[in-house]
Each structure stands twice: as C-alpha cells, then as structure tokens.
Design brief:
Length: 92
C-alpha cells in the first residue's frame, strides 16, 4: 500500500492534478484541484474519485487516511507500491 501526501484546493474551475510541490515544512506534496466545494465531504469524495481514475485503480483502492477537514491530506492507495505510484503520477 502506498501513501500520498496531498494539498487539495476545492472550488477550482476544473478537476486536475497540478504536480508536485513542497509544503512549508519542506515535505513533498501533490497539488490537486477539484470543482467540488468542501461541504459534507464532497471535495474529499471528488479527490478520491479523481485519484482513482488518474491512477487506473478502483475507487475502493483509494482511501482518505488523514485530513478530512484540512487542505493537507494523506491518502493511501492499495495494490500499488510507493515507487510505482510516484512513477504513474509523474507520467500524468
């Protein structure tokens, strides 16, 4: 199972993965934008759906581990190793 640090921006004009960036503490994070608003978990659901589609895995393989109420989130992807996950994201 691979873990993925995310910096989510809800309410964007389009759903998209913007690529890798560094947070304030110097840790790498994947910048993602979704159209959904952060109301009743809609943005989190849109994030998981976008990641599953982009990575080519079932939606059930993508789980929000931490950060349900925060812009910084930790997502796990079952059935994919960390190296393979980062390679797939680099190719997007």
């Amino acid at each position: 199972m691979a873990t993925l640090p995310i910096r989510l921006t809800p309410g964007a004009s389009a759903d998209r993965i913007d690529g890798w960036d560094v947070d304030a503490d110097g840790r790498p994070v994947l910048k993602v934008r979704v159209r959904a608003r952060p109301v009743e978990g809609e943005a989190n659901a849109a994030l998981l759906k976008l990641l599953a589609k982009s990575l080519g895995v079932p939606k059930s393989a993508v789980t929000l581990e931490r950060g349900g109420q925060s812009r910084t989130k930790m997502v796990s992807v079952a059935g994919v190793a960390d190296d393979a996950l980062r390679a797939r994201l680099t190719g997007l």
